[in-house]
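Thioesterase family protein
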Amino acid sequence: MSEHSRLQVEASITGFFQDLGCRLTEYGPERVVIELLLQPRHLNNASNLHGGVSATLLDVAMGLCGIWTEQADQRRVATTLSMNVNFSAPAPAGSRIRAVARCRSSGHKVFMASCDLLDEQDRLLAFGEGVYQRGKLRSELP
């Protein structure tokens, strides 16, 4: 996928993704990678990565991995049917984290994905699995 197409996909991801300050750094048929530089607003009361931010990164990356297409405007919407998240280590502000997702199984309308949330040293912060439904084409949405 070209850099221009990757940026098109990144710009089309919902406002919450944008509000967090995430970046789509890799988008292909084999895997999706989303990065985030942790700011104080991403932390919980213990000054570590908030679980909701972790879950969001996992969810977005897994949803994107099952709807990849070479043409950004032909990408479908993914709806989360179920998702499991496991937390394994904290991360403080200033950490650059990334969600690395892969599609594990795919049917016509439903796909399953897994994702690891890693820090700069490849330490596992969280991991998850999800089941998603493919919906309408992005170009069909209002």
